[in-house]
Design brief:
CATH class of the largest domain: Alpha Beta
Pfam family, one: DUF2332
Structural class: alpha/beta
Helix content: 25-40%
Number of strands: 12
Largest sheet: 9 strands, mixed
InterPro entries: UCP012608
Protein name: DUF2332 domain-containing protein
CATH architecture of the largest domain: 3-Layer(aba) Sandwich
Bound molecules: S-adenosylmethionine
Radius of gyration: 20 Å
Length: 336
């Protein structure tokens, strides 16, 4: 896809969920000066997302420009006229400040409501291992907010509310089958994440990058991110820098042999090349010959559901679809 086509594609993706980005993205596709700036972003990082996030990051940091008047994250009464002239001017005036972000940052959106799919998935694995505490290993955790899932509470509407935290993640259950959820949270022995670029929830610039990645109209997601970061700051998980495929064997070797392992990934594998996908599968399948490993393996759903992802459950022998969820966790379907 050419750069211009990527911005057209992104504009289509924003329809109905970010009118601001939709309108701007269509205009960028026809603007050689802005496409030249976007060309600074290394390929395969989600160019439109990075460009928008870099600008949002500077605005959230207080960059003084009228573009801020169009962002619901920056004003209670955003302007509704064409935002593109202000956006274009911002890019040209702040080009030097934007370049380090464009060249170095990645799409690392940490969507904490995905924990509403992970909670029943961990509960399922926990039952499978007889309730023994799990060693959790997340591949591609970004800021690690989903490794803090047991510090949050869950509200599934009619299906009930679980947990004692005053930070509650809500989701709708859209399946006949009932997920295995209760107040009896699975026990956790340890938790570690491996990311090419772990983000620190103790670092203002990293947290601002996580905020900047969330589209400006998604006020609810901004609120959840801030609350989750506050909770996670109390007990941040260990995050290791590196390629998850290369680091996984060492991380597994550090976990005592008698502790059951649950590896999981959400919205990470789409960023891997095919060869890395094969190597990851081979690593986990071979490790499962030696010890108890369950893998909640995330991928885009191929069925009729819009914007859905699925966690497949690998129990050491077979793969089965376990839970599907809307990309940001607004609903889940239990599949087993
Ligand atoms: C879109 S974010 C998803 C974050 C989190 N899993 C979630 O669902 O909220 C994808 C993450 O995967 C990481 N990632 C991509 N390729 C990786 C690799 N080969 N090894 C480790 N992390 C990787 C990125 O750095 C990024 O933080």
């Amino acid at each position: 896809m050419s750069l211009a086509e990527q911005f057209e594609w992104f504009a289509d993706w924003c329809v109905g969920t970010s009118p601001l980005y939709e309108e701007i993205s269509r205009e960028i596709a026809d603007d050689p000066d802005l496409l030249a700036i976007a060309e600074e972003i290394p390929p395969k990082r989600g160019t439109p997302n990075i460009l928008f996030a870099a600008i949002h990051w500077h605005l959230l940091g207080g960059a003084n420009h009228e573009l801020a008047e169009y962002y619901p994250t920056l004003t209670d009464d955003p302007k509704s006229d064409n935002p593109f002239p202000a956006f274009r001017e911002f890019c040209l005036v702040f080009e030097t400040e934007l370049l380090p972000l464009l060249r170095n940052r990645r799409t690392q959106t940490n969507a904490v409501r995905r924990c509403t799919a992970l909670f029943p998935a961990f509960s399922h694995v926990s039952k499978e291992v007889g309730g023994d505490p799990l060693a959790l290993v997340e591949l591609g955790p970004s800021g690690g907010l989903n490794l803090c899932w047991h510090q949050y509470a869950y509200d599934y509407g009619d299906a009930g509310q679980f947990g004692t935290s005053d930070f509650v993640l809500d989701s709708e259950i859209r399946s006949e089958k009932t997920p295995p959820i209760s107040d009896d949270f699975p026990a956790v022995a340890s938790r570690i994440g491996i990311d090419l670029n772990p983000l620190s929830i103790q670092d203002e610039k990293d947290v601002r990058w996580l905020r900047a990645l969330i589209w400006p109209e998604h006020g609810d997601r901004h609120r959840l991110l801030q609350r989750a970061a506050d909770v996670a700051q109390q007990h941040p998980p260990e995050l290791r820098q590196g390629d998850a495929i290369e680091e996984l064997p060492d991380v597994l070797a550090e976990i005592p042999d008698d502790v059951p392992v649950c590896v999981f990934d959400t919205q990470m594998r789409y960023q891997l090349p095919d060869s890395a996908q094969d190597r990851l599968r081979a690593h986990i399948e071979s490790a499962a010959q030696e010890r108890t490993i369950h893998w909640l393996s995330g991928h885009e759903s191929t069925d009729e559901w819009d914007n859905a992802f699925t966690l497949d459950w690998f129990d050491g022998e077979e793969y089965e679809p376990l839970v599907a969820y809307e990309q940001h966790g607004k609903w889940i379907r239990w599949l087993l």
